[in-house]
Write a structure and sequence with these properties.
mainly alpha
């Protein structure tokens, strides 16, 4: 497997874990992030969406889709920026920045892999 595809696969596996966590034990995940518990369905919907994204990432990794990889870099950096803004606006605990940092580090890893495979 090529470097770029490896980064997509790793992020896809991370999303599987997050998606399954939000789907099956959402309040554990929310509590870990310092967010209030909920019995509403929206958090499980987010879990399903994370699993759909995981499918895209893993499928793109298996097909070695570099264009998809390029698209993910600014999008994942944007997630970090948004999560940081949520903390600065007091919408979420500082732990949300750590969650966004996973996206940021993944984006940087993918960006580095894209440059190194040119």
């Amino acid at each position: 497997m090529k470097k770029v595809s490896t980064t997509l696969l790793a992020f896809g596996v991370y999303l599987v874990g997050m998606g399954l966590g939000l789907l099956t034990m959402p309040n554990v995940v929310l509590g870990t992030l310092g967010l209030p518990s909920t019995d509403e369905v929206w958090i499980r919907v987010v879990g399903v969406l994370a699993l759909v994204l995981a499918y895209y990432y893993i499928s793109a990794a298996r097909a070695d889709l570099k264009t998809f990889a390029q698209w993910t870099v600014p999008a994942r950096i944007g997630v970090f920026v948004a999560f940081t803004a949520f903390v600065l606006l007091n919408f979420a605990s500082p732990l949300m920045i750590m969650l966004g940092a996973v996206d940021l580090l993944g984006a940087l890893w993918t960006g580095w892999a894209l440059k190194s495979e040119k």
